[in-house]
Amino acid sequence: MSKKETHTDNFFERVYEIVRLIPEGKVTSYGAIAKALGAARSARMVGWAMNASHNMEDVPAHRVVNRKGLLSGKHHFEGTNLMQQLLENEGIKVKDNQIVDFEQHFWEPDF
DNA sequence: AAGGTGACCGGCC
DNA sequence: TGGCCGGCCACCT
């Protein structure tokens, strides 16, 4: 309704929506989300949106990593290994800030 | 209004 | 996989 969106444009919500669809024990990459949005070149925007995801609670940002399976965003989480703990808590093994068997746990956003 | 930034990606060595 | 560079697009100051 109207154009009063306080903050968080539809762009961000779009990203959050995808991330929220990520099943437990699964992870995806920023590029995959960007591609699902139809903007594979805007992978950076996805990361940027994640930065604002702090305002959201239903956004498991810890399930989003870069294409290398590296916990690039772990640095932005509270603590130092919170992201890793969350992933391991879901059955995902993480070693040296890197997801083990990344491809195995990789989940592609499906509309 | 313009410039800088960023939780990236892909290509090349 | 690792390092470097350019591209890309929205957000922030």
Offer a concise description of the structure.
With 111 residues, the chain is mostly helical. It has helices spanning 10-21, 30-37, 43-52, 82-89, 102-105; strands at residues 28-29, 64-65, 94-95, 98-99.
Task: Give the topology, please.
Layout: H1 10-21, E1 28-29, H2 30-37, H3 43-52, E2 64-65, H4 82-89, E3 94-95, E4 98-99, H5 102-105
Parallel strand pairs: 1-2
Antiparallel strand pairs: 3-4
Helix pairs in contact: 1-2, 1-3, 2-3
This protein binds a DNA duplex (13 and 13 nucleotides) through residues 9, 11, 29-31, 34, 39-53, 61, 64-68, 71-77.
Structure commentary:
By secondary structure, the protein is mainly alpha-helical. Helix content is 38%, strand content 7%. It contains five helices and four strands. It has helices at residues 10-21, 30-37, 43-52, 82-89, 102-105, and strands spanning 28-29, 64-65, 94-95, 98-99. The strands form two sheets. Strands 1-2 form a two-stranded parallel ribbon. A two-stranded antiparallel ribbon has the order 3-4. Helix 2 packs across helix 3. The longest helix is centred in the first third of the chain and has 12 residues, at 10-21. It is globular and about 35 Å long. The model is unreliable at 1-6 (pLDDT under 50). It binds a DNA duplex (13 and 13 nucleotides) through residues 9, 11, 29-31, 34, 39-53, 61, 64-68, 71-77.
